[in-house]
């Protein structure tokens, strides 16, 4: 009897062997169910072993084979590689590939009713209403039809019995429409055409290659990679294409752009999908029928059959780093996956990460440059507003200079975008009587005041309460006061300054779900908003033709804390935001309010000198041996009490293996020192570039015996510091 070695999506150290019963055609990569402990569990066959491997062992049997094509070999190799790299169990990584069980089986069916053309012998008002609804809506379920007609569902049954409606069973999850490769794209500029040609040749060659598509904001990076997608669709009838976007950029606007370029909606994958949408995308990807997938970082772990092209748009974006569970950076993983799949990978950005630039300079990545916007559109002028010289009025946040520019813009019939990366009304609430700062219980996280909902909200844990009438600390009445600006407060200020202007807030609070977002984007595009005040949700992907002024309310907010990438991230975010201005005929400008106009990131922004800025960053990191010139890993410990975690941390550091050139720092409080009632400590490990830091961390962990309530996780290439 053949033997299947099965990996389960569980934190187990290794796969298990099972006998395959006669008549079950189990192959490598098959999705199967098998008994494990008390349960039947889903797993994936890693390997088929010859009968002899049974070796007299008494094996349990594979109990079920799912009707899904086997997981491809490159995908299985990718899972093993990712597990090793991130120091995780392979089963954990497999779990990320199995995010929809419903996708493993065929779509459920439902009964829909449509008109046969026959007229009923007996006509009632209810029947007439229902027939009208069926005519208007086409084939629908009984409940949809009866609800639309406002009659009971018995009417549907009556009409079906009378031969007026025909019942039909159809799949609930429809396949995605096939994209078309040969619809015309934009007429490319010379520079765009050259970049597109390089990508197309690589795609046609079907070998692994990594590109950096380095183009200023609005230079047509999307148009260029559309050409590569079209080429992949053309070259290989089975090729699948993955486009990764930062989650917040996955808006209707970009989906519509894909739809008009390829004549079909791409398959979506992100955290906002319903179970039904999720299983549909998963199933269609696993069967190789979804050709273009557009998703957030986790879309990288879908079981493509034939992945030939991966695009990572805004490759520098911080949201590609997964911070929970298996911690990974989707950009770096994508490059590895492309290598295993022999695919082409394109990293697109106007502000590439330093890591990526260094890879491009060393020739590991091929760099394609777009230096200008097409047509009349120009990059905006960026001016720094020195708040030390001309500050806003007390308890106000807009400087006279910015206010003046906003009024000019409004008078010219053009739009302003104010950027402030703080949701709500005020990021801190204090008591005027006793000075207490309101925090989430058991943590050091401040509560943010949200006036719109009347609540105090913790943006780290999600904890929220109605704003108390009295101070929870001293009991004083009406003593709680919001300190500092959030978007709601800036909106209030703009309202008093420009009472005739139409003002809206764009943040994850006002734009929950696709429809609300669509509404704001539409109104902005149609010119129905004069001043839009937004968080980083506005920074990406939008083209507002009449937007000519961008005001950055607080450019310094991202610079605080000891984060290694704070300057780089601030530069990236602000040039991204500034790049929203002047995208059509009218020229744009950006005013950046700062108390630190001499900071290299601010100077580079004003001079549009990205490469100069990166050079400074690069020198600093090379000097300190920090990434990409050295390597970092973090080990995070947590326990229910501070004392317990501190004791364990001291024991653990004793057991760190010796390694040439490896330094262990800490323990120190982790970036979020208290999370869900657990106290966290962190070690930071630094090594030279040529050291296998994953192997070092794995060796360290292997020595540890952690008592029960203590938990430990490893973060290779950590991104959050402090
Ligand atoms: N060759 C072209 N002809 C006409 N319009 C173009 C051309 N290239 C780009 N555009 C238009 O210019 C705008 C910006 O292009 P696109 O969104 O592709 O740029 P991007 O570099 O991806 O922008 P972002 O800065 O948002 O990343 C879009 O409206 C696009 O349709
Ligand atoms: Zn008080």
Describe the structure.
- The chain is 31% helix and 24% strand.
- With 722 residues, it is of the alpha/beta class.
- It folds into 5 domains: 3-74, GIY-YIG endonuclease, CATH 3.40.1440; 109-171, Arc Repressor Mutant, subunit A (Orthogonal Bundle), CATH 1.10.10; 190-370, P-loop containing nucleotide triphosphate hydrolases (Rossmann fold, 3-Layer(aba) Sandwich); 381-422 and 485-617, Rossmann fold; 630-716, Ribosomal protein S10 (Alpha-Beta Plaits).
- It is globular.
- The model has no long low-confidence stretch (mean pLDDT 91).
- The structure holds adenosine-5'-triphosphate and zinc ion.
- Residues 431, 433-434, 436, 471, 473-474, 476, 479 line the site of zinc ion (ZN).
- Zinc ion (ZN) binds next to loops.
- Component of the replication restart primosome.
- It comes from Hyphomonas atlantica.
- Zn(2+) 1 binds at residues 431, 434, 471, 474.
- It catalyses: ATP + H2O = ADP + phosphate + H(+); Couples ATP hydrolysis with the unwinding of duplex DNA by translocating in the 3'-5' direction.
CATH class call of the largest domain: Alpha Beta
Question: Taking Cα atoms only, what radius of gyration do you get, to the nearest Å?
Answer: 29 Å
Q: Helical proportion?
A: 25-40%
Q: Per the principal axes of the C-alpha atoms, what is the gross shape? A: globular
Strand fraction equals: 15-25%
Class from helix and strand fractions: alpha/beta
Q: How many helices in DSSP terms?
A: 19
How many domains comprise the coordinates?
Answer: 5
Largest sheet data: 7 strands, parallel
Number of strands: 31
- Report the CATH topology name of the largest domain: Rossmann fold
């Amino acid at each position: 009897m053949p033997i299947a070695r099965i990996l389960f999506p569980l934190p187990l150290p290794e796969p298990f062997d099972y006998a395959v019963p006669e008549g079950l055609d189990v192959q490598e990569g098959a999705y199967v169910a098998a008994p494990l402990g008390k349960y039947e569990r889903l797993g994936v066959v890693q390997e088929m072993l010859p009968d002899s491997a049974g070796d007299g062992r008494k094996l349990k049997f594979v109990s079920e084979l799912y009707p899904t094509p086997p997981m491809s070999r490159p995908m299985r190799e990718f899972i093993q590689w990712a597990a090793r790299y991130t120091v995780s169990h392979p089963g954990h990584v497999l779990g990320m590939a199995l995010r929809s069980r419903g996708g493993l089986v065929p779509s459920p069916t439902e009964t829909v009713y449509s008109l046969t053309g026959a007229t009923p012998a007996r006509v009632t008002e209810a029947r007439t209403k229902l027939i009208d609804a069926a005519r208007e809506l086409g084939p629908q379920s009984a409940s949809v039809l009866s609800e639309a007609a406002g009659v009971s569902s018995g009417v549907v049954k009556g009409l079906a019995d009378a031969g007026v409606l025909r019942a039909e069973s159809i799949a609930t999850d429809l396949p995605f429409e096939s994209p078309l490769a040969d619809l015309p794209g934009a007429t490319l500029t010379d520079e765009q055409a050259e970049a597109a040609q390089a990508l197309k040749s690589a795609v046609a060659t079907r070998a692994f290659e990594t590109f950096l598509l380095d183009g200023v904001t609005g230079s047509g990076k999307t148009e260029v990679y559309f050409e590569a997608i079209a080429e992949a669709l053309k070259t290989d009838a089975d090729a699948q294409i993955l486009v990764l976007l930062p989650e917040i950029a996955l808006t209707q606007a970009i989906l519509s752009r894909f739809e008009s370029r390829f004549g079909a909606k791409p398959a979506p994958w992100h955290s906002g999908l319903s179970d039904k949408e999720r299983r549909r995308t998963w199933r269609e990807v696993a069967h190789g029928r979804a050709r273009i997938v557009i998703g957030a970082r986790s879309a990288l772990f879908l079981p493509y059959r034939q992945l030939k092209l991966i695009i990572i748009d805004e490759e520098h974006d911080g949201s590609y780093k997964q911070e929970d569970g298996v911690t990974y950076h989707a950009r770096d993983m994508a490059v590895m996956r492309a290598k295993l799949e022999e695919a082409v990978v394109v990293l697109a950005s106007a502000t590439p990460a330093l890591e990526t630039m260094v890879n491009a300079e060393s020739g590991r990545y091929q760099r394609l440059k777009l230096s200008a916007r097409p047509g009349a559109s120009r990059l905006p002028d960026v001016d720094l507003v020195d708040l030390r010289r001309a500050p806003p009025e007390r308890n106000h946040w807009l400087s006279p200079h910015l206010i003046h520019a906003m009024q000019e813009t409004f008078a010219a019939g053009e739009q302003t975008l104010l950027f402030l990366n703080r949701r709500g009304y005020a990021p801190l609430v204090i008591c005027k009587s006793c000075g207490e700062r309101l925090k989430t219980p058991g943590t050091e996280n401040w509560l943010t005041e949200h006036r719109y909902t009347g609540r105090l909200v913790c943006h780290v844990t999600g904890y929220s309460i109605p704003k108390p009438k009295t101070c929870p600390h001293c009991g004083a009445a009406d003593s709680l006061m919001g300190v500092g600006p959030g978007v709601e407060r800036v909106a209030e200020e703009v309202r008093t300054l420009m009472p005739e202007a139409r003002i809206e807030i764009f943040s994850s609070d006002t734009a929950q779900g696709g429809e609300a977002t669509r509404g704001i984007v539409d109104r902005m595009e149609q010119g129905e908003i004069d001043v839009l005040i937004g968080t980083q949700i506005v920074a990406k992907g939008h083209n507002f033709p009449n937007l000519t002024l961008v005001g950055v309310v607080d450019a310094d907010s991202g610079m605080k804390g000891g984060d290694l990438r704070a300057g780089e991230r601030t530069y990236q975010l602000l040039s991204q935001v500034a790049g929203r201005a002047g995208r059509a005929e009218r020229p744009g400008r950006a005013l950046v309010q700062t108390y630190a106009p001499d900071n290299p990131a601010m100077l580079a922004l004003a001079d549009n000198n990205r490469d100069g800025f990166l050079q400074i960053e690069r020198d600093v990191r090379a000097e300190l041996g920090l990434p990409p010139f050295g390597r970092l890993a973090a080990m995070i410990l947590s326990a229910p009490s501070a004392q317990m975690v501190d004791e364990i941390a001291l024991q653990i550091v004793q057991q760190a293996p010796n390694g040439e050139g490896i330094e262990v720092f800490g323990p120190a409080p982790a970036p979020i020192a208290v999370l869900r009632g657990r106290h966290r400590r962190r070690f930071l490990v630094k090594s030279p570039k040529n050291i296998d830091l994953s192997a070092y961390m794995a060796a360290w962990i292997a020595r540890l015996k952690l008592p029960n309530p203590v938990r430990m996780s490893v973060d290779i290439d950590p991104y959050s510091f402090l």
